[in-house]
Amino acid sequence: MASKKLVYFFGNGKSEGAKETKALLGGKGLGLAQMTESKVPVPAGFTITTEVCDYYSKNKSYPKGLEKLVDENIKKLEKAMNMQFGNPKQPLLVSVRSGAAISMPGMMDTILNLGINEKVVEGLVEKTNNPRFAWDAYRRFIQMFGDVAMGVDHDKFEEILDEAKKSIASKVGKAEKDVKDTDLDVEDLKVVVEKYKAMYKEEKGEEFPTDPKVQLWHAINAVFRSWNNPRAEAYRKLNDIRGLLGTAVNVQAMVFGNMGDTSATGVCFSRNPATGENKFYGEFLINAQGEDVVAGIRTPQEITLEGSLEWAKNNGISEEDRKNKYPSLEEVMPNVYKQLVSYKNQLEKYYSDMQDMEFTIQEGKLYMLQTRNGKRTAAAAVRIAVELAEAKIISKEEAIMRVNPSDLDQLLHPMFDPAAKKSAKVIAKGLNASPGAAVGKVVFAADRAEEMKEAGEQTILVRIETSPEDIKGMNAAEGILTARGGSTSHAAVVARGMGKCCVAGCSALEIDYESKSMKVGDETVKEGDYISIDGSTGEVMLGKVATKEAEMSEDFKKLMEWADAARKLEVHTNADTPHDAQIARSFGAEGIGLCRTEHMFFNADRIKSVRQLILVAEEVKQLKEKLEAAEKIGDKKAIEELEPLYKEPRKLYDDALANILPMQREDFIGIFTAMSGYPVTIRLLDPPLHEFIPHEDSQLQELSSEMNVPFEKLKAIRDSLHEFNPMLGHRGCRLGITYPEIYDMQARAIIEAAVKVKKNGVDVHPEIMIPLVGTLKELKMIKDRIIKIADEVFEKEGSKVTYKVGTMIEVPRAALVADKIATEAEFFSFGTNDLTQMGGGFSRDDAGKFLKDYVNKEIYERDPFQSLDQEGIGELLRIGVTKGRAANKKLVVGICGEHGGDPATVMFCNDIGLDYVSCSPYRVPIARLAAAQGAIKSKPAKKATAKKAPAKKAAAKASASAKKTAAKVEVKKSASKKAAVAKKTPSKSSSKKKK
User: Fold this and answer.
1) How far apart are CA 111 and CA 181, in angstroms?
2) In angstroms, rounded to a whole number, what is the distance separating the alpha carbons of residues 175 and 955?
3) What SS3 state is found at 425?
4) What is the enclosing helix (H) or strand (E) of 619?
5) Burial track 2-33 (b if 16+ CB lie within 10 A, e otherwise)
6) Sign of CA dihedral 376, 263, 11, 7
7) Active-site choice (53, 268, 413, 490)
8) Is the pLDDT of residue 782 over 90?
9) Does the pLDDT at position 672 exceed 50?
10) Three-state DSSP class for 951?
11) Which residue, 178, 258, 845, 927, is most buried by CB atoms nearer than 10 A?
């Protein structure tokens, strides 16, 4: 094995692993080690490394000597805690928890209270004088251990517990649905324990294990196995988590939040993980264990008084009820609260990032159980990064690197239109757990959300509370709504990580899974009914509520300004209309890298002319060739026969071109105007002609009447256009070679539009892109015609514009002969969709059937149509760039496939020296940030400097900090800057600069 040390101990202020890595100890293990060194109160324990998990996964056994090492560390733990495994007089109970290098909340397994049996229960009763606590701890352990370690169905335990709660409803004076597990007394819990054991024996055919060491190894096995459970694998795929060895196992002495009203447990964040606001944020439960908070079984209380008051206001709770029933930790345990604030400040400062912390209060004493960099929404990530940079805690470059470019997509999602919300019917309000606007059909099961997503339906997943098993359904849904749980519940944490809108803890909901309905007051909502949820306010509304475009925050604009200053690549957009161009400009696009002219052809006012053009094109071509041949040899008879035959189809052909030209010209005028001062790359007609022709005979009959051409003739033409493999057929520049008048018309429309826009005082930079070129002669033949047409327009209009003619490199042959093509091309734009299709031998229309299997089996790391295959297709790009620039030093090179918005591809483009990437308008900010990260990563590494204080110095600071409340860090707020929509003049080696 790579590391000789397999187990690392921590306790009594010392740790063996504080200087190790997350890769080895996992995030939880490293956090425990570092908190221990910093003199934060952490119960002692030890961590079994991720390398052991990797070994176990591959060999289904453990490395030699591990059992002995675990025994040695158990003895260290017993000594540190002055307790002993299985000793009723000094019983040591432990938790066994997972912890990978990257946080995967709720996806892997945890077992609490391990080491308990009936003798230990009696010892705990005598030691604590709290029999209810002891029996509740035993009940919880049997349920968790039986489910997680031994595979007994969780629901079977829940059925027994639910029956017990129902049986005491009248005794405690509550409705059956309102009885909580805390209402069960000692005798009730004893009955539950006996029923649990009996059911376990029936299921497993053996008695429930009582030996603590046997329990421990079952638990260790379970945690390592959970690395490869379906929900953990699904989470890693959804979040693109790769290359980890596995999970570590953390065995830690238990401290108890369920020892009465002076005990509690909670989860907190040093800042708000939904908004990023610099406010302490968290929840706790009195007389509970940690799983109760995150599972959402009980609705927790707020840690701060401010948070408690806000929660009560949102939920219509009176101040009297709030104080009596839901007081904050700040009110009920003020001294503990001050300590917690102190540790929160200390840990955020140590890690220079927002921390997600778990804590337990045992009979008034605070223990910290975990710290890690917290999951957050994209909006929160941006705000936190910017505020930390402005406070000089991190650099601007670090701030840029802190935000995942793909997550920016969340910020661009629509929000509810305030006018529409005013008239919407709000039926309930819960916790604003994860911001956003979601509209969809209600579903009550995760698998149903998946099914409906496959069918193209948008859904809202409604659950009493979510569990890790719901992960795929949560991903499929537009938003998540739960009746139970708080802002740190499973639903809230996972939704924030996914960027999903979530409203949690909406207690007004009465959800009935059996009838697939939920009731709120007098309203009943059934599966399939539409609702709208606002994750920013917690509101639940009936029906569809209209949305509007998102608005960018000042923090977002600042981060984009910093990214623009750091990046080398320009970011252009793929846009076919003035509207798309305007949206892209608002997101910071510095040009159009791909304007697809064929999209303009489908408009209702021009499709008939396009069809007319196509249906006579071949006839015109053939008759023209015959007529020219007859004229060449002076065959008057043939000429007389051919001219009348040629006249009518040629008129239809010319009329169609004449109708389309002004329409295209107006399109280009709008786009050039919207992109004033920035380059616009227009691709000439690319798809095969059959795509524009009616497939139904009824539509063709209608066209026959309009064109006054016999139906049978049109049908024959339509059938002749059919191709077996149209994507490799008569398309792109091949159309321009066969029917040059089509490209002539488009070139004329582009140049005329550019001249007109220039006369209107707009700075214009047209670039004409010839698609699917594979040889130099194809490019030159079409380019020569374009130059001739441009000269004609300039002479007629008495005005000139600077323009470029280039090509799209999408045929592998073009990349291989790029040096030849570059002698005529002024720019290359890699069309990586087709380059992937042809280079990889994939049909885009059919590859979806098998590419998922290729990704699942890691033949490809990612779908090559979503993220560029850098090893294979990327090599074609390298060849094209190298050979092209060797032949033409002024050659501008970019990428315009949808890969241009994929962060990994953008960074690759930065590395191979492209000038720009082009992507869809809504991915422009993603590409801007990814380009900046690529530039930062490619910088030469600086020598590492010691960032953290030496251990002794840190310990002294930590000790002082624990005695007083740490001062709040003031975040300097700079004056708001002008929106970084786009830079006034591109400063990099752009296509505009090189004109």
Assistant:
1) 19
2) 52
3) coil
4) helix 607-633
5) eeeebbbbbbebebbbbebebbbbbbbbbbbb
6) negative
7) 490
8) yes
9) yes
10) helix
11) 927
Cβ atoms of residues 772 and 835 within 8 Å:
no
State the Cα torsion 318-324-328-331 to the nearest 10°. 120
Q: What is each CA distance from 272 to 268, 275, 640, in whole angstroms? A: 9, 6, 85
| DSSP-derived 3-state class of residue 410 | helix
Task: Give the E-state strand segments of 565-687 in sequence order.
Answer: 570-574, 592-596, 679-683
Rounded CA gap, 947 and 219, in Å? 37
Q: What is the mean pLDDT of the chain?
A: 88
Specify the pairing of strand 827-830 against strand 892-895. parallel
Residue 63 to residue 409: CA distance in whole angstroms: 44
| Neighbour-count burial for 198-220, b at 16+ CB within 10 Å, e otherwise | ebbeeeeeeebbeebeebbbbbb
d(CA 37, CA 955): 7
Low-confidence winner among 230-239, 519-528, 803-812 (lowest mean pLDDT): 230-239
For 609-626, the pLDDT digits (tens) are 888 888 888 888 899 999
The C-alpha angle with vertex 927 and arms to 351 and 941, in degrees rounded to 5, equals 45
Q: Tokens representing 250?
A: 């953390």
- The two tokens of residue 350 are 């140590």
Using the 8-state DSSP alphabet, how is residue 968 labeled?
P
Q: How far apart are CA 841 and CA 908, in angstroms?
A: 22
Phi, psi of 306 (to 5 degrees): -60, -45
Of 809, 800, 774, the residue nearest 594 (C-alpha): 809
For residue 923, what are the contacts with CB-CB under 8 A and spacing of at least 6? Answer: 409, 900, 901
* Token duo for residue 365: 């004493």
Return phi, psi of residue 916, to 5°: -155, 160
**Strand, helix or coil at 460?**
strand
To the query of whether residue 490 is one of the catalytic residues in this protein, the response is: yes
* From 268, 733, 896, 919, the catalytic residue: 896
Could you give the CA distance from residue 878 to residue 875 in angstroms, rounded to a whole number?
Answer: 5
Distance of CA 604 to the CA centre of its chain: 37
Angle at 721 between CA 715 and CA 724, to 5 degrees: 125
Q: With beta carbons less than 8 A apart as the criterion, state whether 729 and 645 touch.
A: no
| N-terminal to C-terminal alpha carbon distance within the chain | 58
Q: Which residues pair with 574 in a beta bridge?
A: 594
Q: Which amino acid is at 422?
A: K
Q: How many CA atoms lie within 13 A of 293 on its CB side?
A: 28
3-state secondary structure 43-95: CCEEEECHHHHHHHHHHCCCCCCHHHHHHHHHHHHHHHHCCECCCCCCECCEE
Catalytic (active site) residue 896: yes
Q: Measure the CA–CA gap between 332 and 540, rounded to whole angstroms.
A: 32
Q: Do the beta carbons of residue 86 and residue 211 sit within 8 Å?
A: yes
Neighbours of 571 (CB within 10 A): 32
Instruction: Determine if the pTM surpasses 0.85.
Output: no
CA 136 – CA 121 distance, rounded (Å):
10
* Average of per-residue pLDDT across 392-397: 96
Dihedral sign for Cα atoms in the order 392, 394, 400, 402? negative
The tokens describing 711, both together, are 């139906």
Burial pattern 677-704, b for ≥16 Cβ within 10 A else e, equals ebbbbbbbbbbbbbebbbeeeeebeebb
Kind plus residue range of the DSSP H or E element containing 390: helix 378-390
Q: Cα separation of 172 and 733, whole Å? A: 82
Q: Are 529 and 427 in contact (CB under 8 A)?
A: no
Farthest CA pair distance, the chain: 121
231's CB contacts (< 8 A; 6+ apart) are: 107, 468, 469, 471
Give the helix/strand (H/E) hosting 829.
strand 827-830
Residue 728 DSSP code: G
Asked if 56 and 224 touch (Cβ cutoff 8 Å), the reply is: yes
Q: Given strand 437-443, what is the order of strands in its sheet? A: 426-429, 539-542, 530-534, 437-443, 459-463, 479-482, 501-504, 431-434
Spatial contact of 816 and 822, defined as CB atoms under 8 Å apart:
no
What's the chain's Rg over C-alpha atoms?
Answer: 34
